[in-house]
């Protein structure tokens, strides 16, 4: 019999941050299982961390012998357990679920039968725990499709989706280094409706050693390739391609400032 929900967490040398993430998962509405995939950790193994968990959730551990990358870790978890559940939620080590995150996203998908994928707004916090900003992702599906060419319209650790997506779309692409989520989002919205709950349901840690920082150029190259693959000749598609090309050749220290001006242009293109 298919269970209601699982939370999929990839792990690589993350230590106790895994425990903090698991302990944040709400379990009053439904008690989700937690699928932890250790991507060949060389330092602290996930198994060493999990043994200190004394909470009510069932944890299922999948271990890869060698580090293969987050997309392979996610796919291993999905291939091993994904189809055992009606809904699959994502979370990363160090990120925290807000109260009722699981309940609100499952209830949305149960009410909106034509929707297969839902994210939320996200609070971003620094290493010190200080709130930095809230990313307010769009909820309207047409707006989501347009703005996907400019930036991911979902924040990966905040999404929950129907496991039926695995049969209609498959698992994460493995040909988009450091941008597997962006590629997967594009595949999903081409076939299924998606939205974002207009409320912060997850707190995400900004890690200076995260993928978006240490693999920035590789990530942007992948994003350009993904945009070209999905190009539909709309103003947003042209603008997104130019934007990514500019960012590829712009130092990160300048890209934040440049982003402010690009967002002004994004608002203007939404008028088309």
UniProtKB/TrEMBL annotation:
Gene3D superfamilies: Spore Coat Polysaccharide Biosynthesis Protein SpsA, Chain A. It holds the Pfam family Glycos_transf_2. Keywords: Cell inner membrane, Cell membrane, Glycosyltransferase, Membrane, Transferase. GO terms for molecular function: glycosyltransferase activity. Residues 6-160 form the Glycosyltransferase 2-like domain. Belongs to the glycosyltransferase 2 family. This is Glycosyltransferase. It comes from Pseudomonas cavernae.
């Amino acid at each position: 019999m298919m269970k209601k929900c699982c939370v999929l967490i990839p792990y690589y040398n993350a230590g106790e941050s895994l425990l903090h993430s698991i302990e944040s998962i709400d379990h009053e509405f439904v008690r989700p299982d937690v699928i932890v995939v250790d991507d060949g950790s060389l330092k602290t193994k996930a198994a060493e961390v999990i043994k200190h968990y004394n909470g009510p959730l069932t944890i299922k551990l999948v271990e890869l012998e060698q580090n293969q990358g987050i997309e392979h870790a996610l796919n291993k978890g999905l291939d091993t357990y994904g189809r055992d559940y009606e809904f699959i939620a994502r979370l990363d080590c160090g990120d925290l679920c807000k109260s009722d995150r699981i309940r609100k996203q499952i209830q949305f998908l149960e009410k909106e039968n034509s929707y297969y994928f839902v994210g939320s707004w996200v609070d971003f916090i620094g290493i010190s725990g200080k709130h930095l900003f809230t990313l307010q992702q769009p909820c309207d599906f047409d707006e989501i499709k347009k703005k996907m060419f400019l930036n991911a319209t979902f924040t990966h650790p905040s999404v929950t989706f129907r496991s039926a997506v695995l049969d209609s779309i498959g698992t994460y692409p493995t040909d988009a280094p450091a941008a597997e989520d962006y590629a997967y989002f594009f595949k999903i919205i081409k076939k299924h409706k998606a939205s974002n709950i207009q409320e912060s349901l997850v707190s995400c840690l900004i890690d200076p050693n995260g993928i978006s920082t240490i693999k920035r150029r590789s990530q942007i190259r992948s994003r350009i390739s993904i945009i070209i693959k999905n190009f539909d000749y709309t103003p947003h598609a042209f603008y997104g391609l130019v934007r990514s090309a500019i960012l590829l050749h712009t130092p990160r220290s300048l890209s934040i400032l440049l982003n402010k001006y690009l967002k002004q242009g994004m608002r203007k293109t939404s008028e088309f």
